[in-house]
Amino acid sequence: MTPRTPLDLVDARPGPAFTVTFDGREIAVLPGQTIAAALWSAGVTSWRTTRGSGEPRGVFCGIGVCFDCLVSVNGRANQRACLVPAEAGDVIRTQEGTGHHD
């Protein structure tokens, strides 16, 4: 007997991939992925720096509690990548510090 995959078990098929950009780089995204999932799938593990020391951050809790995964999406700072669904054409940028620049 051939093992069944999770997609077989739920008979789910994702729709066609679309693209977003992260710091100018195009990334393929599947429908329903959060920005964090899309970035992880593309091999990106950090997308924010801390305001004090500039240390890199990415997903920590994955459920929107810790705020370590903040990014700028379409010019809006402080978006939690683990909660925001990616949408075709999104422009995602690494967030430096608080995301508010003078």
Write up this protein.
With 102 residues, the protein is an alpha/beta fold. The protein has helices at residues 6-10, 35-41, and strands at 18-22, 25-29, 48-49, 56-57, 70-73, 76-80, 91-96. Strand 5 and strand 6 form a beta hairpin. The longest helix is centred in the middle third of the chain and has 7 residues, at 35-41. The protein is elongated, with a radius of gyration of 15 Å.
Q: Any descriptors?
A:
28% strand; 12% helix; elongated; single chain; 7 strands; 102 residues; alpha/beta; seven-stranded mixed beta sheet
* Percentage beta strand: 25-35%
Q: Please tally the helical runs, counting DSSP H or I stretches of 4 or more residues.
A: 2
Major beta sheet summary: 7 strands, mixed
Structural class: alpha/beta
Pattern of helices and strands:
HEEHEEEEE
Low-confidence stretches: none
Gross morphology: elongated
What percentage of residues falls in helices of 4 or more residues? 10-25%
Give the termini distance in whole angstroms. Answer: 62 Å
Mean of residue pLDDT values: 89
**Count of extended strands:** 7
Question: Over the alpha carbons, how many angstroms does the gyration radius reach?
Answer: 15 Å
Layout of strands and helices, then pairs:
Layout: H1 6-10, E1 18-22, E2 25-29, H2 35-41, E3 48-49, E4 56-57, E5 70-73, E6 76-80, E7 91-96
Parallel strand pairs: 1-7, 3-7
Antiparallel strand pairs: 1-2, 3-4, 5-6, 5-7
Concise summary:
This protein is α/β, with parallel strands linked by helices and 102 residues long.
